[in-house]
TrEMBL record:
This is Serine acetyltransferase. Pathway: Amino-acid biosynthesis; L-cysteine biosynthesis; L-cysteine from L-serine: step 1/2. Its EC number is 2.3.1.30. It holds the Pfam family Hexapep. Belongs to the transferase hexapeptide repeat family.
Length: 269
């Protein structure tokens, strides 16, 4: 008779920490018990918590919470990378945002994190050629969070969108891994041209508040775009650009500007 092997419990440190933070939050503020229980403690996985939170935030009379929950559950069930990317995004927010002290904050309150997770569901729908439903989710993300990401855009993991007011990312844009984007950033086109017309952002890039990157141009890895800049030309890797139109003003200042979040252009550049 074959020996029965004991089941090995999967380890998910991010989810375990989220649940611990949830219990601590309820102990500290019992009035939030319903919210925290329904969003975290009621579920058995990060995917389930994410799909619940997304569906609750995006629900409307046009599309009730239960229907959105079924759509998001299907996306996470069919594509496990959605939850893995969310873990990387949560870690990015914790590492880079000095206002974030717990994973729970991002899941419950940070619309940048919530918007990118909802986008990931819309992008899955887009890849499945369910275009109208993808557009609907995009519309609700824009209405609820003030973040307009075309579902066709390709965005990596470890993304931190800080504050998230008025973010616009076009349909042929590509954003690499470990990118930090501040409020009022546009990754857009330059007019009515069709086809591949939006920026390609490399890994580890920091894009400052209000920056506009326009056209089918490459922004090299670990580069830094200063706040308020208008980028119309290719940016080499590990450089800082600033101005209208943007020009190279120095080196990136460090190996990982998206992680350091240092936006001061000084003598070290």
């Amino acid at each position: 008779m074959a020996e029965v092997q004991p089941k090995v419990k999967s380890v998910d440190p991010v989810w375990d920490r989220l649940r611990q933070e949830a219990r601590e939050a309820i102990a500290h503020e019992p009035l939030l018990g319903g919210l925290v229980h329904s969003t975290v403690l009621h579920h058995d996985s990060l995917s389930a918590a994410l799909t619940f939170r997304i569906s609750m935030k995006l629900a409307s009379p046009e599309m009730p919470e239960q229907m959105l929950r079924e759509i998001a559950d299907e996306a996470h069930r069919e594509d496990p990378t959605l939850a893995n990317d969310a873990r990387a995004d949560l870690t990015a927010v914790m590492d880079r945002d000095p206002a974030c002290h717990r994973y729970l904050q991002a899941l419950l309150y940070f619309k940048g994190f919530q918007a990118i997770q909802a986008y990931r569901v819309a992008h899955w729908l887009w890849r499945e050629e369910r275009f109208d439903l993808a557009y609907f989710v995009q519309m609700r993300i824009s209405e609820v969070f003030g973040v307009d990401i075309h579902p066709g855009a390709r965005i990596g993991k470890g993304i931190m969108i800080d504050h998230a007011h008025s973010i616009v990312i076009g349909g042929t844009a590509v954003v690499g891994d470990n990118v930090s984007i501040l409020q009022s950033v546009t990754l857009g086109g330059t007019g009515k041209e069709e086809g591949d017309r939006h920026p390609k952002i490399g890994d580890g890039v920091l894009i400052g508040a209000g920056a506009k990157v326009l056209g089918n141009i490459k922004v090299g890895h670990c580069s830094r775009i200063a706040a308020g800049s208008v980028v119309l030309n290719e940016v080499p890797p590990m450089k800082t650009v600033a101005g209208v139109p943007a020009r190279i003003v120095g080196e990136a200042g460090c190996d990982q500007p998206a992680v350091s979040m240092d936006q001061v252009i000084g003598s070290k550049d």
